[in-house]
Structures are given as structure tokens and as C-alpha cells.
Amino acid sequence: MPRWGGWWLPVLGPGVAVGVWWAVTVVFGIREFFLPGPGDIVAAFRAQPGYLLREAGTTLVETVVGFGVAAAGGLVLAVVLTAWRGLERAAMPVLVALNAVPKVAVAPLLVVWLGFGMRPKIVLVVLICFFPILVSAMAGLTSTPAELGELSRSLSASVRDTYLKIRLPWALPQVFVGLRVAVSLAVIGAVVAEISNPGAGLGAVIVQSGMSFDTPLAFAAIVLLAILSTGLFYLVVAVERALVPWARAITG
To answer: Of 67, 105, 182, 202, which residue is least crowded by CB atoms under 10 Å?
Structure first.
């Protein structure tokens, strides 16, 4: 494929979507109260740029902190569970059951337990991100080829060296699959928490603008959330390509 395709194709899809969106609002004469056009959203952002960017910054902090905690905890627990298989068999039913609890139902309880502010929102992000990271890391750590395991034993490698030099590098592509999924879920978790506790953040903007029937402002917040989620996703992709450049050659 020509080099220009790599630059323009990711822009082409959103550009076409925005064009279709604008055309639908114009052709069918849809009022901005029901579906604002791209121009209405730009006008809403230009009317309050400082406010929207400040609330976007709050959502970003909640997302990044929660995602970081979930990534660290999920990776450490994955190493522990794959090292002791008996513990894995005992713990996985509990973890699956906890993950099955609807996070929307937990959000109000976190406010009761942790109070208002940023803490319950970060905890909800951790709860949403933790399981995908754990499962993908465990899948990667248990997929090490048998010949590599035999090589480590023949060299009398310790468990620590085996994990650090063989199993963890081999698992990294699978780990990043979970990280890519989780970073998008992290934004969703932050917004769900902000809607349940609308003190700050883009979720609070959506709630408050809905109460005041300011649909363009709500859509401006939604667009910022989409940009935030997309940026974080491609940041994880960039880190993956920097740390695991050989993975693409293996997978084709």
C-alpha cells in the first residue's frame, strides 16, 4: 500500500462520518435540539472552551490513574495466578463473579463508601479495566511454547528469570490486546461514575446540559470524550509498537 494510505485512511473514516452527519441534519432539517450538526457543536465549544477543556482534564486524570492502577494490579495478579495454578483455580470463579456485577449498580455504592470527589470514579475505572487486563495477561503467560520452557529448564533458569526473560516477553502482544480493550473501557467507566456523581468531568457536563436542554453542549462533551478515548487508544498502540516491534512481524 502507498505510504500516503497509512496517513490518510485513519482520517478518511471520521471525515466521511462527519460529512454524512452534517448532510443528514441539513437535508432533513433536523433541529439542533434533537440532533445538532457539526457546526452547532463547534459553536458550543467556542462559547465555553475553558470550561469544556477543564472538565475534559478531570476525566482524563480519572481515566489515566484508574487505568494505570488496573494495569499494574492485573499484571501482578496474572503473574501470581499463572505461577500457582491451584490458586488460579480457586480464585478465578470469585474474579469472574465479581466481574459479572453490573458496574452501573456499583457506582452509587462507591459514592456511599468513598464519598464524593475523584476517588469513587477512579475505583470504578479500576473495576471496569481490571478483568480484561488480567485475562489477557494470563492468556499470554500461559501460551509460552513448550520448547522455550524446556530451554529454560535445561539452563537451570530460576522462576524469576524464566518469567522476566521468556514468559513475560512472549506474553506482551497478548497483554497489549487487553490494554487496548481496557483503555477504551476506562473512559466509559469514568463517564459512568461522573454521571452517577455529577460534580466534575465531561459526564457531569452531559448531565447538566441535558437538564438545561443544551443539546449542542452535551454533544460537544461527547465529541471530546470520543477524541479522548481515541487518543488514549492510539497512545497504547504506539507504546506497543515501541516495546514489541517484533510482534507485527510474527503475526503478519
So the answer is: 105
Q: Give residue 25's identity as a one-letter amino acid code.
A: T
Query: pLDDT tens, 32-61?
Result: 888 898 889 999 999 999 999 999 999 999
DSSP-assigned letter for residue 84: -
Q: How many whole angstroms separate alpha carbon 190 and alpha carbon 197? A: 10
CATH number belonging to domain 38-143+173-251: 1.10.3720.10
Return the domain boundaries, the chain: 38-143+173-251
- What whole-number distance in Å separates Cα of residue 13 and Cα of residue 122? 32
Kindly state the cell numbers that stand for 210: 441535558
pTM as predicted: 0.87
CA 199 to the chain's CA centroid: 22
Are the beta carbons of 168 and 148 closer than 8 angstroms?
Answer: no
pLDDT of residue 252: 47
Task: Find the farthest-apart pair of alpha carbons in the chain and give their distance in angstroms, rounded.
Answer: 74
Q: State CA 27 to chain mean position distance.
A: 36
Q: How many Cβ atoms sit within 10 Å of the Cβ of residue 170?
A: 16
Question: DSSP characters for 6-24?
Answer: HHHHHHHHHHHHHHHHHHH
Mean pLDDT of the chain: 86
CA neighbor of 110 nearest in space, from 185, 55, 190: 190
Give every CB contact of residue 124 below 8 A, 6+ residues apart in sequence. 66, 103, 106, 107, 110, 189, 190, 192, 193
The Cα-based distances of 191 to 7, 62, 186 in angstroms read 30, 10, 9
pLDDT at 129: 95
